[in-house]
């Protein structure tokens, strides 16, 4: 089941970032699907936890990437991530307390990611390209090591 449809509007053009964003969209679609198939809270909790873990990994990596790229609005970008996680955590707590907040969580996730990627993330692409697309071997090495450090396996 597709809740968020991947489209060219969500592409930043940075392949390693697009892969991570695709995984996030897939995780949200999984949550949507599972929430329609079962009301077993343990199963839903596992899907939510896995999704949140990956989002945190993505944010951590992205913030390091922006710092390394000298992107001037890195602090403001970090704040957007932090506010989102705070908001998500509030929903997560309500879910743990037994409230049926999944429709609200899903709606919030869709609205936030469909805004954040083509607006806030798209804004850093030029700075990242300037640092990493110029063939600087040290930059390429940093990127490879940092991706491996944060992600294992194919999601990197
Ligand atoms: Fe971001
Ligand atoms: Fe992102």
Description:
Helix 1 runs antiparallel to helix 2, helix 2 runs antiparallel to helix 3 and helix 2 crosses helix 5. The model has no long low-confidence stretch (mean pLDDT about 95). The protein has six helices and no strands. It has a single domain, classed as Hemerythrin-like (Four Helix Bundle (Hemerythrin (Met), subunit A), Up-down Bundle). The chain starts with 14 loop residues before the first helix and ends in a 6-residue tail after the last helix. With about 160 residues, it is mainly α. About 75% of the residues lie in helices and about 0% in strands. The site of one fe (ii) ion has 4 residues, from helix 2.
CATH superfamily: Hemerythrin-like
Shape annotation: elongated
Strand content is under 5%
Bound molecules: fe (ii) ion
How many distinct helices? 6
Q: Mind telling me the CATH class?
A: Mainly Alpha
What name does CATH use for the topology? Four Helix Bundle (Hemerythrin (Met), subunit A)
Q: Please report the distance between the alpha carbons of the first and last residues.
A: 24 Å
Helix/strand/pairing category: mainly alpha
Low-confidence stretches: none
Order of helices and strands: HHHHHH
Helix content: over 70%
Radius of gyration of CA atoms, rounded to a whole number:
16 Å
Mean pLDDT: 94
Q: What does the main sheet amount to?
A: none
CATH architecture: Up-down Bundle
- DSSP E strands, number: 0
In total, the number of domains comes to 1
